Amino acid sequence: MKKAVVVFSGGQDSTTCLIQALSEFDEVHCITFDYGQRHKQEIEVAADVAKALGATSHKVMDVSLLNELAISSLTRDNIPVSHELQENGLPNSFVPGRNILFLTLSGIYAYQLGAETVITGVCETDFSGYPDCRNDFVQAMNKALVLGMDRELELRTPLMWLNKAETWALADTFGKLEYVRHNTLTCYNGVIGSGCGDCPACDLRQKGLESYINDKDNVMASLDSKRH
């Protein structure tokens, strides 16, 4: 029996990963992390989406310690989400150590479940500038988890080399574009669906959707070339 764990936020990317995983695995277990994030609705949306799409299980894990350590606009209500980069060249929405923690705990969870795959929706092609979304980071984490637990484990990143338009196209190949469009939460300000229209996450999401709608055939062809 093939089992997978999906690192699941209920946003566009992780929902698209879940949709794809449900077509490939016998069991798909979602794990959502409560780290005191700015948009608390994320956890409720993740639960609703996981149930609606038919995930085998959905686990919410309290990792609020991260909130105490990592200062970011996503962990502090008094820090507005900004389009401007910080002095270190990173967006102020970057939560240091977040994916290190999430992938480590997801790997442990997979170990307990007997799953050999952990799926995460990080992306290097069309991303927010976070260093822990890069392929080199994921490969390093994968090696560390295999060595540390002495067990085969694949950290799978289906969106790593897709741009946002291609991510929309992927959801569309499963007939779920409209579901993802209206039921997921990507917005840093916690607005479901199209979002606030102002934060960097909404901007990236909307531009990708418009690009896909306006050039559907070419985007789908590009997606097909990357998937095969």
Any overview of this molecule?
46% of the residues lie in helices and 11% in strands. It has 9 helices and 5 strands, in the order βαβαβααβαβαααα. Strands 3-2-1-4-5 form a 5-stranded parallel sheet, with helices on both faces. It is globular and about 45 Å long.
Characterize the overall form: globular
Determine the structural class based on helices, strands and strand pairing. alpha/beta
In total, the number of strands is 5
Rg calc: 17 Å
Q: Please report the number of helical segments.
A: 9
Output the helix-strand order. Answer: EHEHEHHEHEHHHH
Q: Which stretches are poorly predicted, pLDDT < 50 over at least 5 residues?
A: none
Helix content: 40-55%
Instruction: Give the overall average pLDDT.
Output: 89
